Amino acid sequence: MVIGITGATGFVGRHVRRHAVAGGHEVVAFSRNPEAVIAGTREVRVWDPGVLPVVEGLDAVIHLAGESVLGLWTESKRKSILDSRVLGTRSLVAAMRASGTRPATLVCASAIGYYGDRGDEVLTEASPPGGGFLAEVTRAWESEALAAREAGVRVVCGRIGLVLGPDGGAWPLLRRIFRLGLGGRLGAGRQWMAWVHIDDVARLLLAAATDARYDGPVNVVSPHPVTNGALTRAVAGRLHRPAVFPVPAVVLRALLRDQSGIFLGSQRVLPSAALALGYEHVAPTLEGALDDLAGA
Fold first, then answer.
1. For 116-151, what is each residue's pLDDT tens digit?
2. In sequence order, what are the residues at sequence separation of 6 or more whose Cβ sits closer than 8 angstroms to the Cβ of residue 193?
3. Which residue segments constitute the domains of the chain, with CATH numbers given?
4. I want to staple 265 with a disulfide (CB 3.0 to 4.6 A). Which of 2, 119, 123, 261 is the partner?
């Protein structure tokens, strides 16, 4: 297949490119710099949310572009987070509608922030949305993507969890903190964390792009979520470091305000849709994922 990727040079995009090429697909990258040389791509096309992208000749698009949610959530930052997702996706869908040879599939990145803070509740793709800023952003983001169905495009919204990878996501920061002996649980440590290895992120997004059985929301997470306390103990054990510096919830809330929900919110999310379709995770357990990452 010929697969277009927005956000192709980002952390997730790099791994999706690598897996796509390894699987025999051709990759067309979208970039703000169309003159950029991006490894593993057949072509680079312009990405500018204010201009309709060229989608002709693509069998599928994996849409990853969006402002990082990390950083202080000022009003300006909030607007950038929302607008980069909503306006960028709206432009992409408009291009699909206008194209005479539109892609058959749109796989749009989303996030498990859709579910909000849900305690011990087991969450699947059938669960209703939660509250909070990230839940509002993901609902708006997915709504824009799903509008492509009106043009006959199959749409998958990949709700991605806490990504662990050797060169990005949460792992490099965790490794640095714990190696300094400063690791510890966040708050009480009872909040659930739906994590996923970067290789499973790439493989699942590509499965969604190439397998017509995937449709609608798909949770891109491990089948075995863990509590923050369990994650802390596992990382400390794997790196042979203590975990004796817990960060009280009140401190996180004082420092980060509503952004503290990223670290204190509980999301016990399962990849029910992917498992029902027979997807087999390369890193289903946290212990196996950490073995792989620590040895990378």
1. 999 999 999 999 999 999 999 999 999 999 999 999
2. 161, 162, 225, 226, 227, 228, 231, 267
3. 2-230+254-294 (3.40.50.720)
4. 261
